[in-house]
Specification:
5-stranded antiparallel beta sheet; 5-stranded mixed beta sheet; Helix Hairpins; 420 residues
């Protein structure tokens, strides 16, 4: 959820109850004012009635003042001792032909030594219509105010948050591997100024760390390569020397294998470091089927040596936009893994679909969850010729290009599937 939407929701959740309570209080106050006015009118009519009653002797028992207003006079045998009682009631109105609300004033009065009970009623129909109309107006005003506040708040927030959105856009498009400096739009908001300042400081530090790490990786790769080449060269010369006995030959062979393993380990770690530093940005269209076929040619002798049967099924020939080096590393590591961990007289089944590459081969059962073998230096066995980085390289390349990879083992049948 966007911050702007969340802010508007909080505004609405805060303002709406206030407006509703305010509208209800306005209704109560309005009704109280109207009732007060009615009471004033009823008391005034009471005073006028008593005055006219004492002045004019021929008043009837029931007197109609206005439409819906009337006065009832009823003689009683004793004094009910009723001062003034105000109440609301419902009465049938012959003019409207329905029951309507009335405001009623009841009191007792003595005239010519007789007691009378007088009731003055006034129709509240006009005021009820007025209150209903005012209530509708209040609701409309509340709805209009909420909508107006929502639109205004959205417009203001959008304008205020423009520098922040521009900063996010700049960060998304910034590449740490490029030498260009990042620039943020100028803003008058202090908080965004501070944010941009901190981000620039962090980016500068990250770039310096990136450059340092890149130089270290390149230097380390170069410096390690030279002594490794010397060790391998000397070991080869010693292996070709006919003066060494069997025990010494075995020791030199171990040195040579260790040097080869260290060389592969150096290459794998260097490749992972370069991928972490985004040093493989150049991409081009890669025909997957052609890449697999050409890569298999380099392993024909090894496949024949292990008497492995190879099956290729190209149901489609997809083209992916990848870095050429990483595409080659991905495919060769998959093939090399399938050969290295295969069984004698085993098989390799390669299936290529439009959106998926599958490589299956028989192998030894695993002692751990297959997905854990995508971690660095995780090996299925302690054999010396494995660096433990092959699957880690494959997983890293898949992550870079948002490809999903899975590794499953079913009855000693290993299956790696990559979905493009």
């Amino acid at each position: 959820m966007k911050l702007l939407s969340l802010t508007n929701r909080y505004y609405l959740a805060s303002i709406l109850p206030i407006l509703l309570v305010g509208g209800f209080l306005a209704y109560i106050i309005l009704r109280g004012i109207i009732n007060h006015e009615f009471n004033e009118k009823l008391f005034a009519e009471k005073k006028q009635f008593i005055h006219e009653w004492h002045t004019y002797k021929n008043l009837r028992e029931t007197l109609y003042l206005n439409v819906g207003d009337k006065i009832e006079v009823k003689a009683v045998e004793y004094d009910p001792e009723i001062g003034s009682i105000l109440s609301d009631t419902i009465m049938y109105d012959s003019f409207e032909k329905k029951e309507l609300p009335y405001r009623l004033l009841k009191f007792s009065h003595k005239f010519d030594d007789r007691f009378y009970l007088v009731t003055i009623t006034k129709s509240m129909l006009p005021t009820e219509d007025l209150i209903q109309g005012v209530g509708q107006i209040i609701l409309i005003l509340i709805a209009g105010l909420v909508l107006s506040l929502g639109f205004v708040s959205r417009a203001i927030s959008k304008k205020i948050w423009t520098p922040f959105n521009n900063t996010i856009f700049s960060l998304k498009n910034y590449q740490i591997a490029t030498p260009a400096n990042i620039n943020f739009d100028k803003t008058t908001i202090d908080e965004f100024k501070e944010l941009n300042r901190v981000l620039i400081h962090m980016i500068d530090k990250s770039r310096k760390d990136y450059v340092s790490l890149k130089e270290f990786t390149e230097n380390a790769s170069h410096e390690i390569q030279t002594p490794l080449a010397i060790i391998k060269s000397k070991a080869e010369l010693l292996l070709q020397n006919g003066n060494l006995d069997q025990e010494n030959l075995e020791d030199v062979g171990k040195i040579y294998e260790a040097a080869n393993r260290l060389s592969r380990l150096k290459q794998g770690l260097t490749m992972l470091a370069k991928m972490d530093n985004n040093q493989f940005e150049e991409v081009e269209p890669i025909e997957v089927a052609e890449l697999i076929t050409s890569s298999l040619e380099n392993y024909e002798e090894l496949i024949a040596m292990k008497e492995i049967s190879l099956t290729k099924t190209y149901n489609s020939s997809p083209t992916l936009v990848l870095n050429n080096t990483l595409a080659y590393v991905l495919v060769t590591n998959l093939i090399n893994n399938a050969i290295k961990h295969n069984l004698k007289q085993g098989s390799i089944n390669i299936i290529l679909n439009n959106d998926e590459l599958i490589i299956e081969n028989p192998g030894q059962p695993l002692s751990d969850d297959p997905e854990n073998y995508f971690n660095r230096f995780k090996k299925g066995s302690a054999q010396s010729d494995s660096s433990g980085l092959g699957l880690a390289l494959i997983k890293k390349i898949c992550d870079i290009y948002d490809m999903r990879i899975s590794y499953t083992v079913n009855e000693a049948k290993h299956r790696i599937a990559i979905q493009f």
